[in-house]
Amino acid sequence: MRPGGLNPAQDDAARAGLNAALDAGEAILARGGAALDAVEAAARVLEDDPVFNAGRGSALNYDGAIDLDAAIMDGSTRNAGAVAGVRTIRCPISLARAVMEKSSHVLLSFDGAEEFARNHGFATVENRWFETEERRAQLETVLAAGGEFDADVKYGTIGAVAVDSAGHVAAATSTGGLTAKRWGRIGDSPLIGAGTYADDRSAAVSATGSGEFFMRAVAAHQLAERLRLGGASLRQALDDTLADIRDLGGTGGLIAVTPAGEAAWGFTTSGMYRGVAGPDGRRVAVYQDER
What we know:
Elements: H1 8-30, H2 35-47, E1 68-74, E2 79-86, H3 92-102, E3 107-109, H4 110-119, H5 133-144, E4 158-163, E5 169-175, E6 196-198, E7 204-209, H6 211-217, H7 219-228, H8 234-248, E8 252-257, E9 263-267, E10 271-278, E11 281-287
Parallel strand pairs: 2-3
Antiparallel strand pairs: 1-2, 1-5, 4-5, 6-7, 7-8, 8-9, 10-11
């Protein structure tokens, strides 16, 4: 993901998708809506956009199917919901919210999550609806090289964080995971505290990258606690959390926003799809050298 690494059509499509997600979230916040609604709306847009590795356009697993993970968290209550390994639900982030609001659980997975979705009236699609030619080609490349999933295959996990006019924060994350993943592997995205976290006492955080390292670092929670207990600035907390992941051997990125409205992102790769919208305007970027 360096300049020139994406062709012009891919670059334009990624930026258009980011702007569409910002439009969806910003419209809710502009009319006084809740941060939780804003992050769900933004995530749904990205889940339906085949550019990104979430919902339609997700990475394929070793067997050629698509397993979807998602999580959402409300910083005002620290209520959270998550799903892992779902295969027929078009908007996994909305299913995660239903788990939060309509069950006594936080994380549901595989057949159980699918049953919960059917019981609560979620529309379903065939698993192949999520597939794109590009993701199929990525799987074939990995399988031809020996079948081990490779962190050098770029994934594009999506995330959204927001703060509303009441000072409440929320976070949402959704992904198709790793190309050629096996054995029911679940990454950091649906794990509260690893890939997703929100707390009105600190920040809302969403992560993307090499999930096994973000899990070991409890990355999203670590960033928030560096703020709440360590007294760090948002920028320092984010950078130090990424440094901890780097020391473990992982790469990736984080986005975060505080109840005071301070937003930040950071990443240790050559690029990360990202955008921010607020009272000071809007920015959308892809590559490391874009400021």
